[in-house]
Amino acid sequence: MTGPAGGEPTDSPTRRNADDATAARALEAVRAIALRLEAGRRLAPPTTTLLLRSIVEATVALFDAEASSIALYDAASGQLVFQVAAGSQGDGVVGLAIGPDQGIAGYVFSTGQPLALSDVANDARFGRAAAEQTGYVPRSVVAVPLLDDEGSIGVLEVLDRRSQAAFDLRDIELASVFARQAAVAIRASRLERDAATLLESALTAIAGAGADPGKDVDAVVADAVAMLAREDDGALWALADEIARLRAADPGELDLVRELLAVLVRRAERAGDARSRRRTGR
User: Fold this and answer.
1) Does the reported pTM lie above 0.70?
2) Predicted pLDDT of residue 40
């Protein structure tokens, strides 16, 4: 059988070698992606959570509020789960899960409509039982949905101005600005998660049908980390890999590791200060 336009036969040794070389290059490309994704996952902080926390902290400061929180819809449990909070009365709500149609947050999530209420106790949508679980029952609230292209993904709530001023339409507009930023951050984190899923699919396809995808991914990632260890910052990457493996350690061992790292960090900081003084002549 000849190839296109009378070229090399599709089943010839030369063509098979070329296909093998292409597959090898593809595998190397995916390995490189695995290397970067895994290194980033191991070393980077949970940026989405940090950004969401900074958003609720900003809303507390802007509104001079007692608390602000973000609840996200968890498809696995079918509930709204409060992920982050800020303010003197905010901590108790983190981890609370409610039905997607319960309370003011559930109403805003399920309808996609924002609310500003000056007397929540007399509103039929208010979930007092859930509020009492947090240790704080608000007087007033502004709640806006977090929206993306697929609809509502969560709710941003701001509770009780310290000035006692009621929330109004202007407050809904301001809170919606923060909600849009939160939705963008969540969307970015989901794209990162989807990239990891696509990577796993690609690795499985390259490894061949019927292969164990988890084993193949682990093997490639292990090779990727080994390659990192041969690069200029190899010692740092190797340390990151060792730290990642400590996830199975007991708390006592982790405390020891933290203490040792703290000593090393202090030594490194002193050495850095000394080098800086020598450079500046101080």
Assistant:
1) no
2) 55
